[in-house]
Specification:
By secondary structure, the chain is of the alpha/beta class. The protein folds into two domains: 194 residues, Alpha-Beta Barrel (TIM Barrel); 89 residues, no CATH class. Helices cover 30% and strands 9% of the residues. The chain is built from eight helices and nine strands. The chain has a three-stranded parallel beta sheet, with no helix packed on it.
Length: 351
């Protein structure tokens, strides 16, 4: 942490010396755990005592150089980290509220968290420092509260709020907020939790998971999915239940899950409740697909076999891997103008 601010200053200095410092600003995107509220009230927000000096130095530098403070706010994590956290307070349409000093009421943890930061900035001597929410979202799997229904509820409330440009009690007006994320990431670290691989609003192959309206007007409809997706052959790696001696099976399952992705098999997840054979087959297949269907990846000491029968069952999708960029012919090079035109067309299609 001690090296963060010197690094920030060096990067901004390099930008300034390159002649782009007035347009390109260096910043640091910390999580919301860098500030606290001793009495759980936003107006009491302050930077954590153990890093207060560092954070104060950082935000004053950002202020002096016209850079924003970028923060990642995840209401889902508030719910995940405490069984006592009020469930409805994680959303924007719930019946829970928090009373702050002066009779101010907060009806969702996003606003309360944001204003806790605003209070911390005021105490640090930079009350007007611009704030950008660099990441906010809701996972759709990997946890009992990570599912499509709750993700849609969260995004609906968030987008309607942002469309009103109402801001928060301490910072009324338009907010700069970036959604996280677009796609699932099946190789992301799961140290924080199995949900880490399921933040995407689109599936791994670019299909929309739920209807939404990015304008916040409430006219939910499917996002435009990715076109032209190509898949590897329709084949799956499953448990060969004809094998009699299964003494080495647990070790092979452990290997498959450690090297593949079994995050949807846990309690409350989308593939929870499969029978033993399907659980093992799911683990084997995920490893097989993530290895681009290499036949050597479907052996597992003879416990596995390749089948052309779709192994998906009981609402649990056994995916087939998409063809990676390395497996396709390179497309014609696009100029900058063509790239910008393509991006604008995609934005219009999803809005």
């Amino acid at each position: 942490m001690e090296a963060t601010v010197p690094a920030l200053k060096n990067i901004q200095k390099a930008l300034d010396e390159a002649g782009v410092g007035d347009k390109v600003k260096a910043t640091v995107p910390p999580n919301a755990d860098v500030y606290v509220s001793p009495d759980d009230k936003p107006s009491s927000g302050q930077f954590r005592p153990d890093i207060d000096d560092i954070m104060t130095d950082m935000v004053k530098f950002l202020h002096d150089h016209g850079s924003p403070f970028v923060v990642n706010i995840y209401p889902f994590l508030s719910l995940y980290q405490s069984d006592n956290f009020p469930f409805e307070f994680a959303f924007f349409d719930g019946g829970r509220n928090m009373q702050d000093n002066g009779g101010v009421s907060y009806y969702n943890v996003f606003d309360a968290n944001y204003d806790t930061l605003v209070s911390a900035l005021k105490k640090a001597g930079v009350p007007s420092l611009k704030v950008v929410v660099g990441e906010v979202g809701w996972p759709t799997d990997g946890n009992k509260n990570g599912n499509v229904k709750l993700a849609r509820r969260f995004y609906d409330g968030l987008l309607k709020k942002l469309a009103k440009n109402e801001g928060t009690h301490l910072r009324p007006g338009k907010m700069d907020v970036y959604l996280f994320g677009l796609f699932d990431e099946d190789m992301k670290s799961i140290a924080p939790g199995n949900f880490e691989r399921h933040w995407g609003m689109l599936t791994y192959d670019g299909k929309p998971k739920f209807d939404m309206d990015l304008s916040g007007k409430g006219g939910d409809k499917p996002l435009v999915g990715v076109s032209g997706v190509e898949y590897l052959p329709k084949q799956w790696c499953v448990l060969d239940d004809e094998v009699k001696d299964k003494s080495k099976l647990p070790a092979n399952i452990q290997y498959a899950c450690a090297s593949g992705d079994c995050t949807v098999l846990g309690y409350g997840c989308s593939c929870n409740g499969l029978d033993e054979k399907s659980n093992v087959s799911y683990a084997f297949n995920m490893y097989f697909q993530m290895q681009d269907q290499d036949v050597r990846a479907c052996d597992f000491d003879g416990f596995a076999k390749i089948t052309e029968t779709n192994a998906s069952t009981k609402g649990c999708l056994f995916p087939v891997q998409i063809i990676s960029a390395g497996g396709r012919a390179a497309p014609p090079a696009l100029g900058l103008a063509a790239l910008l035109s393509s991006f604008r067309g995609w934005m219009r299609s999803v809005m």
